[in-house]
Design goal:
The complex is a heterodimer of chains A (276) and B (304). Chain A is α/β, with parallel strands linked by helices and 276 residues long. Chain A has helices at 3-9, 23-34, 48-59, 103-109, 151-157, 192-196, 233-238, 258-268; strands at 40-42, 66-69, 72-74, 97-100, 116-119, 122-124, 129-130, 133-136, 140-144, 161-164, 173-174, 203-207, 211-215, 222-227, 245-252. In chain B, strands 1, 2, 3, 4, 8, 9, 10, 11 and 12 form a 9-stranded mixed sheet that branches. A 3-stranded antiparallel sheet of chain B has the order 5-7-6, with helices on one face. Classes of the chains: A alpha/beta (276), B alpha/beta (304).
């Protein structure tokens, strides 16, 4: 086979003709860059883009990550490729396990963890999340969500976490969650979590397809920090159900490099889930 | 007198231990190690008014919801990740055909731990600031006797029957998972009766060759059900992966029924639940080609 054919067979598209990064890939690359080498991280159920971000970090600048893929405690830095981002509850991961933990042992380990992820059907300005549903059980759900998974307990205890939403709209980013599956900064203020008795460090970012919010140090209101080009601050404000703060240095994230994209496409997202 | 008694029973007999109105616990996690062979029998017999307590769940609980078998549900998740973000029947019927007692994984663990420890409640603080305490009437707020912020008191739940999956067991009920144990030990210890569905039966000598692998000694087990490929179409740890096509077939059928056209769903039930007389007939209906294509091949770890 010619070199080009070999590359094509491997799904490699790293030369000048490589398609530009999709928004999902750019989100994964952003997350990868924020992961610190040595972090202890648990991957979440049905969160393929954050999973891709963690694995990309692991295969580039963070070979010493400690990762729980549910029960399987792994180091994947020598991994050739990850087969399937779509099912995290996957017994195929056992082949990489250095330890196999019960879920109880994993829950016990959460206060030690540096980073976890929370999804949400709704997220409010203080980083409270809702995976339960929209509407009320006794009157019939408008939309019933899949349930809280482990988020209430995990987000209470983990050192910090990032909230991930796949859609940026006034429907998902709301003034107030109709129900809460995890508590972020409650009704605001740096002491909010202490009052509730939640020992973990709380949400650090909300990551959406348009931008990354961080939280104001004092009020803990969501604040536009980085934008995924070509999105503007106005665009974010228009599509957000609460009025976000704007960080004085709010600006675009740096585009993924060719090297980052090559690792992402060839070793992390081999099925192209993030390219769709 | 006679020798040591065998705990091996058929799928049908094990299923007969579960009565209408029972509270049952199911082991595994999302799409892995769900005791489909035993549960499919309960579906075929349309057991009803069940209260199900489980860690994150997938199509097994969704099917029970669709068949009208549930009275109440305590599980933190019903879906199949990217294949189905929310179980179709669960999404449609939650709060209508059955009650959801909202929980997260930490609360499920607390309910079962309170039972295992023989305590009136376990304190929990994970749900503080969430809606879970309002959406689950079993739990109550309490003051911290040491003066900290208030805590949630999570009372025990005793399971009538716990049903879990493991790789292997001997006929006396010594069980080895050979992999992740999820919260299976907790489910077993919180249950009056424990059914373990295994991929294969091994000798007592095989168990004793590596007792470090034993995850539940026979004291905690009441029945061993031998059901190879017994988690299909879900995955069985150490033996086979998820049958994606099979799960998609279910999701399509369930979605069409949830949207009001029951024909595909009725055909699905006839083919996979009501038609096959037993587990072997089910596997025959699925067919060798699909079943044998699910192995954890290519040098991946599998149970010895």
């Amino acid at each position: 086979m010619s070199e080009a054919a070999v590359r094509a067979a491997a799904g490699a598209e790293t030369d000048a003709g490589a398609p530009p990064a999709t928004i999902k890939e750019t989100m994964a690359v952003f997350m990868a860059r924020q992961v610190r080498n040595g972090d202890y991280i648990s991957l979440g159920t049905n969160l393929p883009i954050p999973t891709a971000g963690v694995l990309l970090a692991h295969l580039t600048h963070a070979p010493d990550l400690k990762i729980n893929v549910l029960s399987y405690f792994v180091n994947l830095s020598a991994m050739e490729r990850f087969e399937d981002l779509t099912q995290i509850a996957n017994p195929r991961v056992q082949k990489w396990a250095e330890a196999v933990m019960s879920l109880e042992a994993m829950v016990n380990a959460i206060p030690r963890m540096d980073l976890c992820f929370a999804g949400g059907l709704q997220v409010d300005r203080y980083g409270n999340t809702n995976l339960i549903g929209v509407g009320r059980q006794e009157r019939g759900w408008k939309f019933r969500g899949p349930g809280s998974v482990g988020t209430a307990t995990v987000m209470a205890l983990v050192k910090k976490y990032w909230i991930f939403v796949g859609e940026h709209s006034p429907r998902t980013l709301v003034e107030q969650c109709e129900h809460r599956s995890s508590a972020g900064w409650d009704l605001g203020g740096a002491g909010a979590r202490r009052k509730l008795g939640l020992p973990g460090g709380g949400p650090e970012y909300i990551i959406t397809p348009k931008c990354v919010f961080d939280f104001d140090e004092e009020t803990k209101e969501a604040r536009i920090r980085w934008l995924f080009p070509p999105v503007s601050v106005e665009d974010v404000i228009e599509n957000t159900g609460f009025r976000p703060l704007v960080h004085p240095q709010a600006g675009p994230v740096q585009a993924p490099t060719e090297d980052e994209l090559a690792v992402l496409r060839q070793r992390v997202d081999i099925k192209g889930l993030l390219r769709r | 007198m006679g020798g040591r008694a065998s705990l091996v029973v058929s799928v049908e007999e094990a299923a007969s231990w579960i009565k209408d109105g029972d509270t049952i616990g199911i082991g595994g996690f999302v799409t892995t190690n769900k005791p489909m062979a035993v549960l499919r029998r309960l579906m075929k017999e349309r057991r009803k008014d069940l209260t199900v307590v489980a860690p994150p769940s997938s199509i097994e609980v969704d099917m029970m919801a669709g068949l009208g078998m549930l009275k109440s549900l305590l599980t933190p998740y019903v879906g199949a990740e990217a294949l189905a973000p929310v179980g179709p029947f669960f999404g449609k019927l939650a709060g209508r055909a059955f009650q959801v007692e909202e929980v997260d994984l930490g609360m499920v663990i607390a309910f079962l731990r309170a039972q295992v420890y023989g305590l009136p409640f376990m304190p929990a603080r994970g749900p503080a600031g969430t809606s879970l305490p309002e959406l689950n009437r079993r739990v109550k707020w309490m003051d911290d006797p040491f003066g900290g912020p208030r805590l949630l008191a999570v009372p025990p739940i005793e399971l009538d029957v716990g049903i879990i999956v493991a790789a292997q067991a001997d006929q006396y009920g010594n069980v080895q998972h050979l992999g992740a144990t999820f919260i299976d030990s907790l489910v077993a210890q919180a249950a009056k009766k424990v059914i373990v569905q295994v991929e294969r039966l091994v000798s007592n000598e095989e168990i004793k060759r590596d007792p470090l692998n034993t995850t539940l000694p026979c004291e905690f087990v009441d029945a061993v059900v031998v059901a190879p490929f017994g988690c299909h179409p879900l995955s069985g740890q150490g033996f086979y992966g998820l049958d994606e096509g099979g799960v998609k077939e279910y999701i399509r059928a369930a979605r069409s029924a949830a949207e009001g056209s029951p024909e595909t769903w009725n055909n699905y039930l006839i083919r996979y639940v009501d038609g096959p007389e037993n587990h072997a007939a089910y596997l025959q209906e699925v067919g060798f080609e699909r079943i044998l294509g699910l192995g954890l091949e290519n040098g991946e770890v599998s149970a010895r």
